[in-house]
Amino acid sequence: MTAIILKSLQYRWPDASNLTLDIDSFHLGANEKVMLRGPSGSGKSTLLAALSGIIDVPKASVLVAGIDVGDLPGSDRDRFRVDHLGLIFQVFNLLPWMSAIDNVLLPCRFSKRRLEKVGANPLETAMRLLGELGLTDPELLNGPASALSIGQQQRVAAARALIGSPEIILADEPTSALDEDAKDAFVELLLKECDASGASLMFVSHDSTLEKHFDRTVELNVLNGRGV
Amino acid sequence: MLDLCLKSLLNRRFVAGLTVLSIALSVALILGVERLRTEARAGFANSVSGVDLIVAARGNDVQILMATVFGVGSTGAGISWESYEMVEDMPGIDWTVPLMMGDSHRGYPVIGTSTAYFDRFRHSGGQPLIFEQGHGFDDPAGAVVGADVAQAFDYAVGTEIVNSHGSGSVSFDVHDEAPFTISGVLAATGTAVDRMVIVSLEGFDALHEVPAAIGADPFLREDDSARMPHDEHDEHDEHDEHDEHDEHGHEPGKINAVFAGLTDKSAVLSVQRQLANYRDDALTAVLPNVALLQLWSITGTAETALRLMAGAVALAGVIGMVVMLTAALDARRREFAILRSVGATPRHIFSLIVFEAVLLLLAGIVLGYLVLTVVTIVANPVLASNFGLRVGVGLPTARETLLIALVFCSGLIASAIPAFRVYRMTLADGLSMRL
């Protein structure tokens, strides 16, 4: 099944004169790992908002995991988002007053689907994911997330996005706060885990040095016909 | 959801703690005022029972009630013994107890009366006075003390005590020439009687006869020295004060008031009228319960003011909580965006804020109740000895529960303001992490 299908997607912010998004066609295959590159202002955030059901898009223009996002009523979009998407932000992904483990388990609180997919022991799954991402110190994992380094926080965020095997991981410049060595290591780990869970990855970044890790790179300026 | 809330609040424990404290203080205050008010009323109402009429020289009902029952203030002019006998002999009057007052013993009021006082006086809905130790006085030098007085000074049967004139706790005018011997200690009643020293009429008179005979001339003091060996030269003022006795109306043969019981309670109004029309002395007959109602109408304004203030403090506490919740919203935008990204709906975020308010309010109410209980336990001895008030410690009454519920509900409703703000904010923010 194709993870993401965009078909003549047009979106204009309520008070804007130009179309922010004008995408003719885009496909993201199952377990495909794509890097989406574009300067700021090219509509990256708006595209992510469209994919995650934050903004209203026309019917049949955005299909995520076979679901027409534009056709979902508002209250269903929150469930859709947590059921099918794992999100990783640039920085500050974690609730600082929660432990790393509890942060990882957050989606399972809100999504029955992901709780079911995570197996009989969510805690064990969380520990395994964190372990695979190189975080094993139990003291660190049970302490407040604010005690973690930025690199560690991003790996915890990746574990949270992956837990319960959502179909698609959306990563919004997750490496921009990391140093050079950590960037490649993080991307490799993320890709490995996406393979393990069979998730597709849409990795937004303007860092061309990371291109080599992905199946293909899409320039948002090209994709987004009327983009700036 | 609840543990999310708790953890988030713990993360902000300092501000949350302050908010809980302010709610706790307002709850303690609002309940404290209420409790003090009801206990004061109950205490006052318990202090008079079984007395149908209080007869005194013409004056204000409340003043007469306060002086005779609570030992606060005085009745003004006295009434003559002839008037007392007239009351005693009136048709319809079952029993009478004469009362004299105006002296104090180390700050506690002293009253002069007959032994009938111990048989007739009733408190707390008809309970008689009970002797914890000893018995009533059989001779003019005998005295009976209330439970508080006995406890305050460790008095027991046989202790010799000395009274002073006036009602302050510090008196320069000590009647050490007329000591009393305690013949009995009363069991605690929870009323003003606990704070009284009760002596016989003769004893009370004797107290004033002795200094009255001394006269005003300080040069006569050599004659006095035999009688008052402890006098110092610089205590001349003392003698001047004694002069004023006569103006206070403490002359032998005069009493201050009469407690009266009727054979037929329904005749109380006609007896009251007859006494008011008595020609030989200007008398007022007070129905204790009516005077109490008058007292409530006087204190009502102060009570209302106190309750308004307590209400305002509670309002300030609730507003403080809303301010805290609202002020935190901007700082918590990131928190909400993260929660939204993992599937929390705007409704979840809304209820998160309301849950927080509930937790803060509950903690505040519980803490406030504890504070009130502790303060009550600490303040009770002071209240009891100074005002004869005892504030109960225990579970909230129905009215208090209502007040607590009122604070809780107003807090809950007020929390909807930040909750709605955050609802709209999360809808507008979405997952944007631009901060």
UniProtKB/TrEMBL annotation, chain A:
This is Putative ABC transporter ATP-binding protein/MT1014. One of its GO terms (molecular function) is ATP binding. Residues 4-226 form the ABC transporter domain. It holds the Pfam family ABC_tran. The keyword Cell membrane does not apply. Signal peptide: none annotated. GO terms for cellular component: plasma membrane. Keywords: ATP-binding, Nucleotide-binding.
Automatic annotation (TrEMBL), chain B:
Keywords: Cell membrane, Membrane, Transmembrane, Transmembrane helix. Residues 17-205 form the MacB-like periplasmic core domain. One of its GO terms (cellular component) is plasma membrane. InterPro entries: ABC-4/HrtB_transporter (IPR051125), ABC3_permease_C (IPR003838), MacB_PCD (IPR025857). It is found in: Cell membrane. It is a multi-pass membrane protein. Residues 224-233 have a biased composition (Basic and acidic residues). The keyword Membrane applies. Its main location: membrane. It comes from the Bacteria. The chain crosses the membrane at residues 14-33, 282-302, 308-329, 349-382, 402-423. Residues 309-426 form the ABC3 transporter permease C-terminal domain. Residues 224-253 are annotated as: Disordered. Residues 234-244 have a biased composition (Acidic residues). It holds the Pfam family FtsX. The keyword ATP-binding does not apply. This is FtsX-like permease family protein. It comes from Pelagimonas varians. The lineage of its organism: Bacteria, Pseudomonadati, Pseudomonadota, Alphaproteobacteria, Rhodobacterales.
